[in-house]
Design goal:
By secondary structure, this protein is mostly helical. It has one domain. The chain contains six helices and no strands. The protein is globular, with a radius of gyration of 16 Å.
């Protein structure tokens, strides 16, 4: 029971941050599942992808859309690419060792953080 409550708290926190910053599950949910809930990197990534199947961001996207801050065409084309890219990426990720995947994920987060902080 407590674990499920923890999952709800993680979801609420990620939802708020997603609504504020437009971030996805990778930034918060995956590390929390790995370090607080003891999941493997593969399990955390698969779980995070599974939670994106329903339209979890529908109300946040609607709030942005009402303010004129959504490009529907761009979102549709990105979604199309994401469907196929996600499948290819998942096949690749499941074929590499856990430690390599975790370290690669950390490098990606560090590169994005550095670019956001120090880039133009």
């Amino acid at each position: 029971m407590w674990q499920n409550l923890g999952f709800v708290v993680v979801g609420l926190t990620a939802g708020v941050l997603s609504g504020v910053f437009g971030i996805g599950g990778g930034l918060l949910i995956i590390p929390v599942l790995v370090y607080l809930f003891g999941m493997t990197q593969h399990l955390a990534q698969g779980t995070t992808l599974a939670l994106m199947i329903p339209p979890i961001g529908i109300f946040a996207a609607w709030a942005y859309w009402k303010q004129g801050n959504v490009n529907i065409a761009a979102a549709a084309f990105i979604c199309l690419g994401f469907v196929f890219g996600g499948w290819v990426g998942a096949k690749f990720a499941n074929a590499i060792p856990e430690l390599m995947l975790r370290r690669s994920f950390g490098v990606l987060l560090a590169v994005v953080a550095a670019k956001m902080m120090f880039g133009k």
